[in-house]
Amino acid sequence: MKRHNILTSPALYWACLVLMCYISCSDDEEFILPVNRYEFRVPDHFPQATYTFDNNPVTKAGFELGRALFYDPILSKDGSTSCNNCHIQATAFADSPAHPLSVGVDNLLGSRNAPSLTNLAFFPEFIWDGGVTHLEFVPINAIEAEFELGETVENIVSKLNAKEKYRNGFRDAFGIEEITLPYTLYALSQFTNMMVSANSKYDKSLRGEEVSLTALELKGMTTFREKCGSCHSGELFTDFSYRNNGLD
Fold it and tell me: Which of 61, 71, 140, 155 could form a disulfide with 172 if both were Cys (CB 3.0 to 4.6 A apart)?
């Protein structure tokens, strides 16, 4: 079964991407929380986070380490591909609309299109089929899939330990002298957890701030709620269920 909002039709992909930009972005706001804020905060109109921040609170050093890892192709087997290749900030940390299926190392096609990484701190399950139930374990799938990063976690840990900048980074973030897999996953989680989309014009209107949706925007919101809201409901636009939507 596929998650209901999987986008495999090009026309549907573009339509939903436009909607995503409307609800998530603005001209003068960062999509990701400004990097001078390193404390995770739940937006007033959001549900409580599901991520266990008591085990891994966000810090400046941890966030910056996770960001470095996210953009570093060292996580791939041949140094050609990073997390950012399939999770692009300009497209809401999802894949390019030009890719019906995501492309990994050696230009291998995957079996799905990489989903957006926004608001993951509030999700109970991950990946299109909900096969992973904790954010810490999500990167392992991409790292070890031969058509994604094609690497092993053992090799990644070895490569990171061989680089002084990462030994220093992990020491600053976690106070450890030897890099291990759990702390590597902690760092990546600190970065991705801060990808909170909650300050668009739509969000501000929900919070009662002094913004007004145009007549066309209000009409679009009404249509969306009537036609799409039975599945794409709530502040996060999903009911977390899985359905076969009939698309190829």
Answer: 61
